[in-house]
Write a structure and sequence with these properties.
The chain is of the alpha+beta class and 419 residues long. It contains 11 helices and 11 strands.
């Protein structure tokens, strides 16, 4: 069986065919057909790799609170690192394609999706958006090949939603003798960061700090190891356990001027990076919902009660139908946001609405899917518990539901409720 889509934009009918095996059953309205044939082939290869290499070990890594570092070469070979940048992408692709890939990864393991998102979406985008040509040349291809892994240090122990104005980590510029009759400029970083994914093993960490001279936020590439830089793994997490988050302490960490991100002059520049990743986090939320839905559906067909599968019960079918409706509505909204990114017209309030809506619907879906499984729903072996727990972190990072809602409210009213 094949699915077809027709287009008359050029005055003729074009038919794209997609094999049934390459289309997710959960894609109820066939949104995946919006991808090009080349993007479709790439998605199929990624899905196959995830099902073979990630899925069998996801629960174990989650329990051990370990990232899938052993799969970094495979991720790089598939083009999962830096797909949006010309020097690292393996195929011409759209924001819609990159978003769908985020869904696919999160559908199998939200922790893996976050690990890749931190490295590729945050650290590489920070250098891609904020770096000089020389900095991009030094780092981007190596990061794309997975030879260098990045982290992104923005959030602080006392500042999450208010980092734009509340950032306490400081950067002080100074000129020192270079020892050969000249001088050089360097920066001294002091402060702390929290919840920094990948930081315990990253080769470079992009640190955001407030310039003590002009009070503006600047970005710095901190090479590891660095004297005065300490990253301590955060333990006892109950969500996204497969992401190795860290508390970072910076005590007189010296960074050369050549490692300051050349095109970052204020938090407005940082916001460009966050806008790009926030939309993909919305797609990650859809992936979480899809993973839970698929597990609950399979369970409902197999689990027998009162002499028949629980999938035959009306209330179970209602939960499944509502879950699929939430997933479908979220894909529709996020599809348009990614198309707007391709068109260059996506704004902060667009990605904020997508993230808030998709994560709220995700939370409903994982709760319904856990209910379908009854007591078995709290055990990793049955396939929903990990998504149920991971949803809480996805709901919160890249802007909480409340903050993203208020960004939309500011757009509606012209009044910022959080200043």
């Amino acid at each position: 069986m094949t699915l077809t889509t027709e287009s008359t934009e050029t005055g003729r009918t074009e038919v794209q065919q997609f094999e049934e095996a390459d289309v997710l059953d959960v894609d109820f309205y066939s949104f995946q057909q919006r991808l090009t044939p080349e993007e479709q082939r790439s998605v199929a290869a990624i899905r196959d790799f995830l099902d073979r290499e990630v899925r069998p070990h996801a629960d174990e890594l989650w329990e051990k609170a370990q990232s899938p570092r052993h799969l970094i070469p495979g991720f790089a070979e598939l083009g999962l690192f830096g797909a949006s940048w010309p020097e690292t992408r393996q195929l011409e692709n759209s924001a819609v394609y990159r978003a769908w890939v985020a869904l696919e990864i999160s559908r199998v393991d939200p922790s893996t999706a976050t690990f890749i998102g931190v490295h590729s979406g945050l650290a590489m985008n920070a250098i891609g958006v904020g770096g000089s040509p020389e900095q991009r040349e030094e780092w981007m291809q190596r990061m794309g090949r997975g030879e260098v892994i990045g982290a992104f240090g923005l959030t602080e122990p006392g500042h999450g939603s208010d980092t734009a104005k509340g950032l306490e980590t400081t950067a002080t510029r100074r000129t020192v003798d270079d020892g050969v009759g000249g001088s050089r400029d360097e920066w001294v970083l002091n402060g702390s960061k929290r919840w920094i994914g990948n930081a315990v093993f990253a080769d470079i960490v992009v640190i955001w700090a407030r310039d003590t001279a002009d009070d503006q936020v600047k970005g710095f590439i901190v090479r590891q190891p660095a004297p005065g830089f300490t990253a301590t793994k955060i333990e006892r997490k109950q969500s996204l356990r497969g992401v190795e988050n860290a508390d970072i302490v910076l005590e007189d960490v010296v960074v050369p001027e050549s490692d300051r991100l050349a095109n970052i002059n204020s938090f407005r520049d940082v916001a460009i990076i966050l806008r790009l990743t926030r939309a993909e986090v919305a797609w990650q939320a859809i992936g979480v919902a899809v993973g839970a839905y698929e597990a609950a559906l399979a369970y409902a067909k197999e689990r027998q009660q009162f002499g028949k599968p629980i999938a035959s019960f009306q209330l179970v079918q209602e939960k499944l139908a509502n879950s699929l409706s939430n997933i479908t509505a979220s894909i529709a909204l996020c599809m348009r946001v990614s198309e707007m990114q391709d068109l260059g017209i996506q704004k902060d309030h667009h990605s904020a609405m997508a993230k808030a809506f998709a994560t709220a619907r995700m939370r409903e879906v994982v709760a319904w899917c856990r209910e379908i499984m009854g007591g078995n729903g709290i055990q990793l072996d049955h396939g929903v518990a990990r998504y149920f727990a991971d949803a809480e972190a996805v709901y919160t990072f890249e802007g909480t539901y409340d903050m993203n809602t208020l960004i939309v409210g500011r757009s509606i009213t012209g009044i910022a409720a959080f200043v």
